[in-house]
Design brief:
This protein is mostly beta strands. Among the domains are: about 35 residues, no CATH class; about 90 residues, Elongation Factor Tu (Ef-tu), domain 3 (Beta Barrel), CATH 2.40.30. It is about 5% helix and about 35% strand.
Length: about 650
């Protein structure tokens, strides 16, 4: 028989005796009390704690011990002051890290943002090539927030390529707000990695006039949809749909940018920038496939931005080129006001046959690399001159273009010798001429023109893998070359990427730059208007007027009985091609921006308009319940057994 008893903190046993009913009641009371005594030392509830000072040692001590070990939901206050940090603060639980305040951007007033507040808590990065704050977030956890701090990089030695603030993990409740960054040595301000989604709002990004930096680094496709991508190349992100207008992007809003590049985006990154003011801008940059194994940028939304270029930029330019650079993946750009920019969107690729970038000279043919986006493979000989003999050449290949000839030693665009040779003309299927004589003779080698990673349905190699206007496709295995494979085919093969057109509409363009102003600038030479991208009508955009056959129109809501007729574009991909049982291509066509309900409709079949996109909630839901650089007191305090 179990005898009711309790054990005190010294290990002494007390036996409970007496009347049975009373004993039962006493047993309940004493055992409950004993459990409370036992659990009290280790039960932790979220609370508010203030560091002794803004020093790294004091802040770390109240988050990672010994002063206090932070738990989920804690608010950690950093007092006012200026402190240099030479070590990285690691945060592994969702907390609010709150400084005393910083200069920050006001909310959007319908036209722009202004700067308000003053720097109270100032951190001077002295971390070399490391991040100042490294956060590991977890899916489904409470809000992780950093607010009210100025990070002033005035004398940093080293370059934190992982960002001054690095947001990692797979959290979807992440907010950074009311922060001031001054970047003079740092390559990146805020790094968004893993599969992090959330919001950055009321940020003031100020960049030294002599620096070219990335305010944000959107790499949040490296861990997309779990751990399917072992090397973090972004393969999982490119195997998922666009998720336009949803919480499945990282949002930047109500912010002010001065100088520099506003973003870097690669490894399947996904983001939206909106309701912000940008001056002296080099634009939002995004990578495509280059010489490495990383994938390009996956999804961008740029809207309701006031972007101006009133003076000379950090690279000496007088006019801005483009505010958006979708060199990979897809993009929506609408409602922006720009001045002194040549275009809203400018597209380029480094894997083209006529590529002249240094990365293009470093491309290896498959399976050792991505190779060029082109048409064929050939074999033959080079005799040390401009004459090349072989098999499989096509006179329809666009010239000039680059061909990889192992051992031939050709002079590249930057004057260095390599195996990339520029072809001036193709005489026949067995003969072509180089632009510059090869410095070595080779025979019996394979000439690489084109890559199995690309669609190769047109003479240009179109569609090219991860090119602008390409979206979801087969999942790649995330392995390094030469073991990179398409998991659907089990081979090195085109991943059947869906056409996901770029739509640019309802933008207000004033005082364009002097170099061929346009709404969309296609620097690839292989994409097509009204197939891969659709643009607004009017100055610098689509000529003529909207009639449902091209471009993007706009106006009030269209009841079904009054919808304009429409036709889809010609898409040169076999219509029966599927991806996991679903059509790959989609019959995307012209667009119509419904100004009444803020919805983009797209022509998906003859005379059929389908709702394609509605902007995500603004302000972002994670900003609710707070104002300024302060945070509401914690609520719902509970004891949590650890």
């Amino acid at each position: 028989m179990l005898v009711p008893h309790i054990i005190d903190s010294r290990g002494k046993v007390y036996v409970i005796t007496g009347n049975t009913d009373k004993m039962n009641r006493l047993q309940y009371v004493f055992v409950s009390f004993a459990l409370l005594l036992f659990l009290a030392p280790i039960a932790k509830a979220q609370g508010t704690y203030t560091a002794k000072s803004c020093s790294y040692a004091d802040v770390n001590a109240i988050i990672n011990g010994p002063t206090h070990t932070a738990v989920r939901g804690d608010t950690i206050n950093i007092p006012a002051g200026t402190c240099a940090w030479s070590s990285t603060l690691n945060i592994h639980v969702p907390i609010t890290l709150q400084g005393a305040g910083a200069e920050y951007s006001s909310s959007w007033n319908g036209t722009n943002n202004t700067l308000v507040g003053a720097d109270q808590t100032v951190i001077n990065p002295q971390v070399g090539a490391n991040s100042v704050i490294l956060v590991n977030t977890t899916l489904g956890n409470p809000l992780m927030r950093i607010t009210g701090i100025a990070f002033l990089d005035t004398a940093l030695s080293g370059d934190p390529g992982g960002g001054i603030v690095n947001l990692g993990g797979n959290g979807n409740n992440v907010r950074v707000d009311h922060l001031h960054f001054f970047l003079s040595h740092s390559e990146k301000g805020i790094y968004v990695g893993g599969s992090v989604t959330g919001v950055a709002d009321h940020i003031f990004m100020d960049v030294s006039g002599t620096s070219i930096t990335n305010d944000f680094a959107f790499y949040n496709g490296v861990g997309w949809n779990g751990t399917r991508d072992p090397n973090g190349y972004g393969d999982g992100s490119f195997a998922d749909t666009d998720h336009f207008g949803s919480s499945q992007l990282f949002y930047v809003e109500d912010s002010y940018f001065n100088n520099g590049y506003e973003s870097d985006c690669v490894n399947g990154g996904r983001y939206a920038a909106r309701y912000s003011t940008i001056v002296n801008s080099a634009g939002f940059a995004a990578h495509g496939l280059t010489g490495g194994a990383n994938r390009g940028c996956r999804v961008q939304e740029l809207y309701m931005l006031n972007v101006s270029f009133p003076g000379t930029g950090p690279d000496g330019a007088i006019y801005g080129a483009s505010i958006g650079h979708p060199n990979s993946g897809t993009l929506l750009a609408w409602g922006n006001t720009t001045s002194n920019f040549n275009s809203i969107v400018g597209m380029a690729m480094e894997r083209l046959l006529n590529g002249e970038g240094r990365d293009a000279e470093e491309l290896n043919p498959a399976p050792a690399g991505w190779g060029y986006c082109g048409t064929k493979y050939s074999t033959g000989s080079a005799n040390g001159s401009t004459a090349i003999t072989g098999t499989g050449f096509q006179t329809t290949w666009p010239t000039p273009f680059n061909m990889i000839i192992p051992g031939a030693l050709c002079t590249g665009a930057y004057g260095d010798l390599g195996n990339v040779c520029k072809v001036a003309s193709v005489q026949s299927s067995t003969s072509l001429t180089l632009a510059v004589a090869a410095a070595a003779s080779v025979s019996g080698v394979g000439y690489t023109v084109g890559s199995p990673w690309d669609g190769g349905l047109l003479a240009t190699g179109y569609p090219c893998m991860d090119s602008p206007a390409r979206g979801r496709g087969d999942l790649l295995n995330g392995a390094n070359f030469p073991n990179r494979l398409n998991t659907v085919t089990g081979t090195t093969a085109w991943p059947h990427q869906a056409l996901s057109p770029i739509y640019v509409f309802a933008n207000n363009v004033t005082i364009p730059g002097p170099s061929s102003p346009s709404i969309i600038f296609d620097g690839t030479g292989i994409l097509a208007d009204n197939r891969d991208y659709y643009q607004q009508f009017g100055a610098y955009g689509e000529p003529g007027t909207f009639n449902g056959t091209k471009g993007v129109g706009q106006g009030s809501s269209l009841p079904s009985e009054a919808q304009p007729t429409c036709t889809t574009s010609s898409n040169p991909i076999a219509p029966n091609t599927t991806w996991l049982g679903e059509p790959v291509t989609g019959n995307w066509g012209p667009g119509y921006w419904d100004t009444t309900n803020s919805t983009l409709y797209v022509c998906t079949a003859t005379n059929t308009w389908t709702a394609y996109y509605t902007p995500y909630t603004y302000p972002h839901p994670l900003t609710a319940g707070t104002s300024g650089s302060s945070v509401n007191p914690p609520t719902g305090l509970v004891a949590t057994v650890q």
